[in-house]
Amino acid sequence: MNIIQCQFCKKPFASLRGKVCPACLTQIDQDFIKVRDYIYDHKQTNIDVVAEETEVSKQIILYLLKEGRLIIDSPDGDGGGILQCEMCKKSISTGRLCKGCTGKVATSLDKNVSGGNTAQKSASAQQDLKASAKIGTKQ
Ligand SMILES: [Zn+2]
Ligand SMILES: [Zn+2]
């Protein structure tokens, strides 16, 4: 188990997955409902207004946008420049990649799958499973 610093409250915690501690995750889930309902009623808004009206910190709203749990529509359809595609830096309204780059990533994944020997792949997947089971019993 990894002890890391929470991305929001900066407290150290034992992380199984992600960079946010359980307390902040609970808070974020509550904030998520507020923000989601606000955006549902006020389409085509922007992050500053949302943060002000819902009293949820921008940091949390950004986190939810990057996780793809929220989408803020802007009149020009680029998310108002809140988020950028991590590959081509184009403005996007949700997630980490723009549609174009998501397509590119999907295509290259497809190639990897169809190009490989499937029998070999499943054998090595089983080995992976055994390996992780061993790690599990050690702890
Ligand atoms: Zn925290
Ligand atoms: Zn892109």
Task: Provide structural commentary.
- Helix 1 packs across helix 2.
- This protein is mainly alpha-helical.
- It has helices spanning 22-41, 47-54, 58-66, 99-115, 118-138, and strands at residues 2-5, 12-15, 83-84, 91-92.
- The N and C termini lie close together (9 Å).
- The chain has one domain.
- Mean pLDDT is 80; it is low at 133-139.
- The protein is built from 5 helices and 4 strands.
- The chain binds zinc ion (2 copies).
Overall 3D shape: flat
Spatial ordering of strands, largest sheet: 1-2
List how many beta strands DSSP finds: 4
- What is the H-and-E element order? EEHHHEEHH
Low-confidence stretches: 133-139
Mean pLDDT rating: 80
N-end to C-end Cα span: 9 Å
Question: Could you say how many structural domains there are in total?
Answer: 1
Residues in helices, as a percent range? 40-55%
Total number of helices: 5
Sheet having the most strands: 2 strands, antiparallel
Structural class: mainly alpha
- Strand % is 5-15%
| Bound small molecules, deduplicated | zinc ion
Query: In angstroms, what is the radius of gyration?
Result: 20 Å
How would you sum up this structure in a few lines?
The chain is mainly α.
Record keyword descriptors for this entry:
54% helix, binds zinc ion, mainly alpha, flat, disordered C terminus, two-stranded antiparallel ribbon
